[in-house]
Amino acid sequence: MSIVTGVDGCRIGWVAATHRLQSDECSIAVCSTFADLLASTKDSAEIAVDIPIGLSENAPRPTDLSARRFLGSRASSVFPAPCRASLAGTSYESASALSFAASGKKLSKQTYAIISKIREVDIALRADIAAQQRVVEVHPEVCFAALNHDQPMAHVKKRSAGEIERLALLPAQYQAAFATARPRWLHKQVATDDILDALVALWTASRVLSGSARSFPPLPVVRDSVGLPMRILA
Predict the structure, then answer these.
(1) What share of the chain is helix, strand, coil (3-state, %, to 5)?
(2) Which of 4, 47, 85, 138 has the fewest Cβ atoms surrounding its Cβ within 10 A?
(3) β-pair partners for 25
């Protein structure tokens, strides 16, 4: 297969940027659930998603520490993934308490904000062994830095200068797909940085397919207690 997909979460679900490499066609869609996304991208050889996948039982993930070292001045953009026990929480208070019991650390509000999406991906991948073979974890700021000759972005992604900086780095066909897609959704439904993050995840998915992606931390792959890899690719 010569189709790859990059994915980022958004307020109304998941943004999926897909590149058909043979025709060089790039398109962007939104799926309401991760299960729907997997079904709609069944022809994709690689799917790169901006969400923690393998989860630690109690200690910081080596992949997060490695990615933070790589980003240097932008290290704070990689906030710690939750421990696996916290996924059972039904509120910030209960998830944070479960995290503290397992690891001695409470959850940050930023981490809790995406815990429902982490849980959604975790459930989908644990139920689908085939999906585990083609879904990989990425972090947009790590990917953009790799695309930018190992230099972190100069501007925050939520600011217009950061959006312009990131868009300018992307391949021309990705920029064209962005221009077509941006007017299709309200910003409160799909933020501009959601689309840009999906596109740089797509860039990484193509590198995974070609075998040129970098692993954080370097190989060998460390797996969590349920067998999912704890690594970020870029």
Answers:
(1) 45, 15, 35
(2) 85
(3) 20
pTM of the shown model: 0.96
Residue 31 and residue 121: Cα distance in Å, rounded?
13
Do residues 119 and 55 touch, judged by C-beta distance below 8 A?
A: no
Give residues with Cβ within 8 angstroms of 187, minimum separation 6: none
| 24 conformational bin, left if phi > 0, alpha if psi -120 to 50, beta if neither | left
Reported as half-sphere exposure (CB side, CA atoms, 13 A), residue 56 has a value of 17
Under 8 Å between Cβ of 56 and 224: yes
The rounded distance, in Å, linking the Cα atoms of 128 and 116 is 19
Q: By CB neighbour count within 10 A (0-12 exposed, 13-18 middle, 19+ buried), where does 43 fall?
A: exposed
pLDDT tens, 153-182? 999 999 999 999 999 999 999 999 999 999
d(CA 46, CA 30): 18
What are the helix (H) ranges across 51-128?
A: 62-71, 92-103, 109-113, 115-126
Nearby residues of 123 by Cβ (< 8 Å), 6 or more positions away: none
